[in-house]
Amino acid sequence: MAHARPFALRARRRAAAVVAVIGLLAAAGCGSDSGEPPSAVGTPRAGGSLDILATSDARSLDPFLPSYAAQADGNRMAALYDSLLWTNPVTGSVQPQLAESLTPVEGGGNKIWSLRMRPNLKFTDGIVFDAAAVKINWDTHAVPTTNSRQRDATVGMKSQIGADALELRIILDKPNGNFDRLVARSLSFIASPKAIAEGVDKLAEHPVGAGPFMLAPGGWVKGDHLTLVKNPTYWQGPAKPYLDSITFRYESSGTAAVDRVKKGKADVANVSDAFTLKAARAAGVGVESLALSGGQLLSFDTSGGPTANPDVRRAIVLALSSEEINRRVFGGAGTPARGIFNQATALANPQLSAPENKPQQAAELFAKVTDKGAKPMRIKFIAPKSAAIDELGRYMKETLEKFPGVTLDVETADLSEFVKRSNLADAFDVKVSQLLADDPEPVVYQYLHRGSPSNCCFYGDDAVDRALDDARNTTDPSRRRAAYTQLQLQLDRDMPLWVYQEAVVAGVFHSGVTGVQLCNDGIFLFDRLGKKG
């Protein structure tokens, strides 16, 4: 399970991701200046607290309704529940945490896997944390009425108790050589079976996990803060976690969060946009950054309307320039993307680059689809409200409406309304999207595979599905790279989406903080985070 499969490397250059669709997470808390330069590596002293700034309140504290993204609820989930497994974005490996191992069963053709739990684990309510607890959680995700955001991960999966109470046997309907990555990203947070039996609605406000922290009595004051205190029965022993408590508070401005870190009024921030990362580096605070694939992108409704026509999608992309978007929207701070894979990763093919910024080819295609302007075409572009996105909309409108017969209607909405509309066919033709992937599994697979509930664009293509399936069923880097090369080639031909800015996630921290390590798409490992001695 922990075999290395290099995908994401530590970022060595500035990169950018979504400005408007992401969340910003920052940890703060009366941190004293140690007088030393920031260092992510070190053993924290025992005690202390951190405040964690987020752009919004938690929707729920159960493991079913929240988003597991680091920029959403991933950090709250990790603090409350710990993880069965986590992915190391630097090495590409999958690491055990609460689980002892997750491996394919020999002779099972990557369709049968064995999950083995550590012995003597318990939830904070005293209930035993064994294989049955995992099964109950995964079965709850699969129930449609749970409305779990992770239900997609349970499709085609069955489980049963194995040789003893600590083993869970998983039977998949299709081979998946990277099932451990799926668990690490989508099924890793486990709640007490007793709490689930009492009702997910109750669990939403009274979480019961086995993580390093637990909800303090009266600790959730909605709209203001969420305080978690050290779990006295944490499985790693009384020395862990190092901190006595953490408190999530809400701050929508990334630059304001960095300013607080700089001034010692905040301790840690998880940032994921070019402007904030640039500000953090200029401020001289600590930065622990990751290069992830995906990034900020345009995705198209391929199910109907004008963008159901691949010629229209291709014409739009050929008309636009990632360099110009970087200049106008990101102030030159970001890194224009060449495709869905970050070029610093082992699975990228450096010879490939998505077609863009070819206005003559765009003119020819627009002339074809509009009959030289005789059949006007209106394209609906939707995006969440933000100054940066407003500038992107202006650039796109100015550029596309230079072509006869083309009109771009730009609509912005608050984030909740945007998310609702962007999941409905015919509610848009083009939308701003974000993808943050430490590995293509499972994120890219779920984003593009035909019929996936997480499919970005109501998209289906046989060549894309074949490439995704081929890559899913192997751990060999050369075979994965070959499959993903075929994927990129087909995406460049069909253009269901266009990535225009590379992604980045960084842990930004004050000099008084140490033990900063990011997993998955940027979630902090809370059993390692703390204050310098």
Automatic annotation (TrEMBL):
Domain Solute-binding protein family: 94-450
Pfam assignment, any one: SBP_bac_5
Keyword Transmembrane helix annotated: no
One term of GO molecular function: peptide transmembrane transporter activity
InterPro entries documented for this protein: Peptide/Ni-bd (IPR030678), SBP_5 (IPR039424), SBP_5_dom (IPR000914)
Example GO BP: peptide transport
UniProt cross-references to Gene3D superfamilies, sorted A to Z: Dipeptide-binding Protein, Domain 3 (3.10.105.10), Periplasmic binding protein-like II (3.40.190.10)
Any one of the GO CC terms: ATP-binding cassette (ABC) transporter complex
Alphabetic keyword roster: Signal
Protein name: Peptide ABC transporter substrate-binding protein
Native organism: Embleya hyalina
